[in-house]
Amino acid sequence: MTVKNTEFEIQGINHLALVCKDMKATIDFYSGVLGMPLVKTLNIPGNGQHFFFDCGGGNCVAFFWFPDAPEGVPGISAPKTRPEQGELLSATGSMNHVAFHVPVDKFDEYYEKLQAKGVEVSPVINHDDSPSTIARRLHPGVFVRSFYFKDPDGALLEFACWMREFTAADATAEPRTAADRTV
């Protein structure tokens, strides 16, 4: 099912901007480990920096470095752990995780490659529509396969591949409101 935006011709994510503690460590991870080319660097007046990495498809993941940025707070600014370790919660307005789309036929290879590079990765997760939303085995109802890992600043990242096309039946959940919150 292909759904078209009739309001705006949005062509993807131009860039997602995160904040890092150490731009050198960020370059080492995103370019050195993940292979994303560093395509643009800016020194910001006041001693900050803004660097952009090509993450494919004309999209970038970017990082700010600020000399006075406060430390992130696990469980507030990002999840405390990876999903399979029991905690996916983060604060309203926070960035929970970034999922990078990878080809289905390269998924297992990339899992092993990240492990070989010393990256701690979650087990592979088969996301489906079961009550737990996770299947132990791959089956036709699995809509995405993924695994999670963290960058040097603790940002939760995911490699994911779609396993099937969505239909109208995939978007039927009733949206919750602020009134449904428990906080």
Automatic annotation (TrEMBL):
The keyword Isomerase does not apply. It comes from the Bacteria. One of its GO terms (molecular function) is lyase activity. InterPro entries: Glyas_Bleomycin-R_OHBP_Dase, Glyas_Fos-R_dOase_dom, GlyoxalaseI/FosfomycinResist, VOC_core. Keywords: Dioxygenase, Lyase, Oxidoreductase. Residues 12-162 form the VOC domain. CDD domains: VOC. Gene3D superfamilies: 2,3-Dihydroxybiphenyl 1,2-Dioxygenase, domain 1 (3.10.180.10). This is Catechol 2,3-dioxygenase-like lactoylglutathione lyase family enzyme. The lineage of its organism: Bacteria, Bacillati, Actinomycetota, Actinomycetes, Streptosporangiales.
